[in-house]
Design brief:
DUF2339 domain-containing protein; transmembrane; DUF2339_TM; about 75% helix; UCP035905_mem; mainly alpha; about 900 residues; transmembrane helix; 35 helices
Length: about 900
């Protein structure tokens, strides 16, 4: 199988699997409410598809094996064979070996030069194989695993630490921690007056800052480290003095603002990222190091607001993403820890205000980073700030406002509107560097807007809104060639489906159709069908992983259409559920066919072709619970379903669809089953005895007789597809008729209830004769080629099978006659011990053997004569083994005498036909 053919085969197998799993699962869920029906139907469809897939796969593998064998044989025949002399060539002598003595020169005539082709072949055979001397290339080493985000962060930290002066960097870090611990120890043990302690720390910080400033031109890296340590020390001093009430809050806040601005100015002026990082990290760590557990969150968050203001100021002039992420991590980590340990409901307003302030600051930082260069949203630095910020902020906000009704819905909506508005404003600026961040903000706005829907409404309304929103995003992604938008639209529709399933069973609506559940499924259906069509129309622009997405979305839409419609019928159409459900499926198939015609879209027509057939299988299964298929206006439903089915098949033929024969003959099987089932039920409601069982054999026999007419009618579909109906449509019905004949004759007494029983003229025997006549009519209408297709075994085996069925029927007819007229038993035990039954069977078998042998002798049918003789042997064995046990009865004496006379007459009238004549007749 070529690669293209293999890909096509796999695609078609996947499509068939998806279609069958979908259709079987939907109808299983519709006919058996709950997950059991859906699971059973899906599993049945999957197994059904795998049978077809494995069958095609085995056939393709057989073809490949055959082609490989042919290629191998051709290669063996064409391969040149080395001469035998080359195999016996002795090895070359070594240098130490003495050369052999020269032989006397003998003048010989020069041989004739061989042809050019022979010389070339000889030279090629004598040349050594140099390719064997070349060693194979060493195996390519495996690609190293990609580092994780943690590994990348740790690696960058170590590389930063090794750059410049690592000893100085380590020293400034240790010095900062040591000064912090010293301050805390001195405060805990009261070693110095508290004012003196803070003055000493501030003096040391200023000294570091001054020395670093003086060394900025000589040793820039070392100077930046000293300045960073000084900034961190000043942060620590002001914050700690405020905590101990040594500085008024207003003055402390002003000093913190001055320090933050000074650190920002120094870092920007010297283009020193390390100075900004050390200053910022020291500022954030200061309140943690000197914390006394007082819980003054106002001071803490005010202090952090000032630090973040410094980060924002630096971002105005420099694109240092490491600094931005550092401030983001410190701010929201410490805020989250405080929320988990020290938060109370009375703190909600102030804490939420600080949270919103931090959020707005870092949104501004993200925008400032894009002013000079576009963001790398795939990296963890830019991506964490753009996408991680709203997630963390909304999570902390939700933990505070959760007790307020609808607060989360309004909050999510506010986040969505904020990001959409901000994206629109940035888009209007026309900056190319804003392009990615505008798309990211638009996606975040859609996400948070979508999140507001389930927070405000129930799952069914949410499903409807999400479905429409997802379809809209997918349409935008198709129009603008945006993979992310298409993926998000698909995920949003899947989430809508899950939400709809959650709310579908468990809520009761009083209004039919115009309720949230039905409208939700309708929106899901329309969204899925539209998405499938848009993806179908833009196949050339789809990514490789989107192959088959149009099929999935189309099936998704049809599935929700069926679920919503069948659910409404089951809940509100109580007296005609069965018939209306069938009509609804018929209407669905017709609408899908029309959609295919209007949009030149083949897939809906394929689904419409499968839908009635699969629906019929589940409908027949569901009819078992109702006892007959025409219950609850089922006759109307079946009529509409068959009409839609054959109309779709006619459209498929016009569109040159292949494989429709099975849909035609399958419909004939279902039609036969429905008519037989309903006729049996209606007869059983009005009478008893053998009558209700007769339609199970008579109706298939009539269908076989219809297919066995010389000229099939109507012209469409029977005459147009004569081969399919006459062979594939009739063969399963013939098997069913044969099994019914055998079963009825082995189990039924043929009780005709309200009419007297007459041998061979009772309802059962007449029905069996009708079945055999229908089979004969069908066989006589076949051509020789069709007969060879229908029966590929020995023709004598077919004759034996028919003769066996007739033999069973006639014996059963005899026993039924003895039962109704003479009271003979019909059980196996009773018949074995009944003298009347055994004697009658012996005489009857003898007559059959006599008739067969006499007829065969006249027609010179050696095979038939042998069968009759075998039957006579059986009769003799029966007389000796069974009838002889009670020889004193009149019946058995009669049987012995009758069989003996028949044997004598047969021996005189029916000698064995000659073998040679029989062979000529057979030819």
């Amino acid at each position: 199988m070529e690669p293209g053919q293999q890909a096509s085969f796999q695609a078609s197998s996947k499509a068939l699997t998806v279609i069958l799993v979908f259709v079987f699962g939907v109808l299983g869920a519709a006919l058996e409410s709950g997950g059991e029906g859906l699971l059973f139907g899906a599993m049945f469809g999957f197994l059904f598809a795998q049978v077809f897939h494995l069958r095609g796969r085995v056939q393709s593998l057989q073809e490949q094996l055959q082609s490989l064998r042919l290629a191998h044989d051709l290669r063996d025949t064409k391969a040149p064979k080395a001469p035998a002399e080359l195999e016996r060539t002795p090895p070359a002598p070594t240098e130490a070996a003495a050369p052999p003595p020269p032989e006397p020169a003998v003048v010989k005539p020069a041989p004739a030069a061989p042809p050019r082709e022979d010389r070339a072949a000889s030279v090629a055979a004598e040349m050594p194989d140099r390719s064997a001397a070349i060693p194979p290339p060493p195996p390519r080493p495996a690609a190293p695993p990609q580092p994780t985000a943690f590994d990348r962060i740790a690696g960058e930290f170590m590389s930063w630490l090794k750059r410049g002066n690592p000893l100085a960097r380590i020293g400034i870090v240790i010095l900062f921690f040591g000064a912090t611990f010293l301050a805390k120890y001195a405060a805990d043990n009261s070693l110095f007056p508290i004012e003196l302690r803070f003055v000493g720390i501030a003096s040391g910080a200023l000294a570091l800052l001054f020395i670093g400033w003086r060394l900025r031109d000589k040793r820039a890296v070392y100077a930046q480290l000293l300045q960073g340590g000084g900034i961190a020390g000043l942060y620590l001093t002001v914050f700690a003095a405020t905590r101990f009430d040594l500085l008024p809050t207003g003055l402390a806040f002003g000093l913190l603002v001055v320090i933050a601005l000074a650190a920002a100015i120094l870092a920007v002026g010297q283009n020193a990222l390390s100075l900004a990082v050390i200053g910022t990290a020291g500022g954030f760590l200061a309140p943690i190091m000197v914390s006394t557990g007082s819980g003054n969150y106002i001071a803490l968050f005010t202090y952090y607001a000032v630090l973040n203001l410094g980060v924002f100021a630096v971002a105005w002039f420099r694109t240092w993403r490491v600094l931005n992420v550092l401030g983001f991590v410190f701010t929201f980590t410490i805020t989250g820890l405080w929320r988990a340990t020290g938060y109370e409901s009375a703190d909600r307003i102030a804490a939420d205000a600080f949270l919103i302030l931090f959020f707005l600051m870092y949104v501004g930082v993200s925008i400032l980073n894009c002013v000079r260069q576009p963001p790398d949203l795939k990296g963890y630095l830019s991506g964490s700030l753009v996408f991680g910020l709203p997630v963390v902020a909304l999570t902390l906000h939700a933990s505070m406002v959760a007790p307020i009704e609808y607060a989360m819905a309004w909050s999510a909506l506010a986040f969505g509107v904020f990001y959409l508005a901000l994206g629109a404003v940035l888009h209007r600026t026309g900056r190319e560097s804003f392009r990615l961040v505008v798309e990211a903000f638009a996606a975040l706005g859609v996400i948070f807007g979508s999140l507001a829907i389930p927070l405000a409404f129930d799952s069914r309304v949410t499903a409807a809104m999400w479905a429409v929103e997802g379809a809209g995003l997918l349409w935008i992604g198709v129009r603008q060639q945006r993979k992310l938008a298409r993926a998000f639209g698909a995920l949003l529709q899947i989430a809508a489906g899950i939400g709809c399933l959650i709310g579908l069973y468990g809520h009761q609506d009083d209004l039919p159709i115009l309720n949230s559940a039905c409208l939700g499924t309708l929106m899901l259906s329309i969204s899925g069908l539209c998405s499938g069509y848009w993806l179908f129309r833009n196949q050339a622009q789809r990514a490789q992983y989107e192959t088959g997405a149009d099929v999935v979305f189309t099936l998704w839409g049809v599935m929700w259409w069926l679920i919503g419609g069948l659910r409404e019928i089951d809940r509100f159409v109580l007296t005609a559920t069965y018939g209306v459900s069938l009509s609804f499926v018929a209407l669905t198939a017709a609408l899908l066919a029309l959609l295919s015609l209007k949009r030149e879209w083949r897939l809906p027509l394929v689904i419409a072709t499968y839908l009635p057939a699969v629906c019929a299988l589940f409908a027949l299964t569901g009819a078992i619970n109702f006892a007959h298929p025409f219950v609850q206006w089922g006759a109307v439903g079946w009529l509409l379903l068959f009409s839609a089915h054959f109309w779709v098949l006619r459209l498929g033929e016009r569109r040159a669809m292949h494989g429709l024969d099975w849909f035609h003959v399958g419909a004939s099987w279902v039609l036969t089953l429905i008519i037989a089932w309903e006729a049996s039920y209606q007869v059983g409601e009005r009478t008893t005895g053998v009558w209700p069982q007769l339609p199970w054999g008579v109706v298939p026999a009539l269908m076989v007789a219809w297919f066995g007419r010389r000229q099939l009618s109507p012209h469409w579909p029977l005459a147009v597809r004569e081969h399919a109906y006459r062979l594939f449509g009739a063969l399963p019905l013939i098997v069913a008729v044969g099994l019914w004949v055998v079963y009825m004759n082995l189990t039924s007494t043929g009780d005709s209830t309200w009419i007297p029983y007459m041998p061979l003229l009772n309802p059962l025997d007449i029905s069996v004769a009708l079945c055999l006549a229908a089979l004969a009519m069908w066989w006589s209408a076949l051509t020789d080629q069709q007969r060879a297709t229908a029966w590929r075994f020995d023709p004598r085996a077919l004759i034996a099978a028919v003769a066996g069925i007739v033999f069973i029927w006639l014996n059963a007819a005899l026993i039924r006659t003895l039962h109704h007229n003479f009271g003979a038993p019909v059980t196996w035990h009773g018949m074995y011990h009944s003298t009347l039954v055994q004697a009658s069977l012996s005489i009857f078998w003898g007559l059959l053997g006599f008739t067969a042998m006499t007829l065969a002798a006249r027609q010179r049918w050696r095979y038939v004569w042998l069968v009759g003789a075998a039957l006579m042997i059986v009769v003799v064995a029966k007389l000796l083994l069974v009838d002889l046990s009670n020889i004193g009865t009149i019946a058995r004496i009669t049987s012995f005498l009758t069989v003996g006379v028949l044997l004598l007459v047969t021996g005189y009238l029916a000698p064995l036909p000659p073998k040679k004549i029989t062979a000529q007749v057979a030819e």
